[in-house]
Amino acid sequence: MARGHEDAITLIKTDHRKVEDLFAKFQKARDQTRKAALAHEICTELMVHATIEEEIFYPACKGKIEDENILKEAYVEHDEAKVLIAEISEGSPEDEFFDAKVTVLSELIKHHVKEEEKRSEGLLAEAKAAGLDFEALGARLAERKKELTEKLTHAAKLPPPETRSFSGPTLKRGHQVEAA
Q1: How many CB atoms are closer than 10 A to CB 3?
Q2: What are the start-end ranges of the H helices in the chain?
Q3: How far apart are CA 88 and CA 98, in angstroms?
Q4: Are 123 and 61 in contact (CB under 8 A)?
Q5: Which residues neighbour 71 within 8 Å (Cβ) at sequence distance 6 or greater?
Q6: Could you read off the pLDDT tens digit of each residue along the chain, which spans 180 residues?
Q7: End-to-end CA distance of the chain
Q8: Eight-class DSSP state of 3
């Protein structure tokens, strides 16, 4: 591996395993302070990972992979995750739905990872078949990841999410939709 960086696929899969481990630790945690710290780490890791994929990896795949729909689905899955990340980041383990939100985020991420890592038709397999330069992509991903990690690790809280695929109405909390 050139320049001492992991290739893009190794970096992405390493991120996936790290977050899976953090979710497992969260599920076992009983102490509220520990849960808060793990939730913050999960959210930070996912924001960094989603950002580097959306800024570097997904654009590199666009126009080169066979099934462009998997890219669109990946963006929508990221947007769903970002909404939950924002909710979790603004909340605390004492909140009524906090654990449930982390659990649903975990399930969403498991699905997303499974889709990206499918052996023959997943995004990573399609990118490999397209012959992308994984060494160069890995170096770019690692550099941006380092920059974002430093920025977000020292931030008091995560910035609000920017979604690509959501454009619907603003939702209201706790209100019933009235029949017409």
Answers
A1: 10
A2: 8-28, 32-52, 58-61, 69-90, 98-117, 123-129, 134-153
A3: 6
A4: yes
A5: 58, 61, 62, 65, 123
A6: 444 578 999 999 999 999 999 999 999 999 999 999 999 999 999 999 999 999 999 999 999 998 889 999 999 999 999 999 999 999 999 999 999 999 999 999 999 999 999 998 899 999 999 999 999 999 999 999 999 999 988 777 788 878 888 776 555 555 455 555
A7: 62
A8: G
Please provide the size of the chain in residues.
180
The pair of three-digit structure tokens given for residue 115, joined into one six-digit string: 């889709």
Contact 65, 123 (CB under 8 A): yes
Pair of tokens at residue 35 = 């849960």
Residue type at position 171: L
- Amino acid identity of residue 101, one-letter, is K
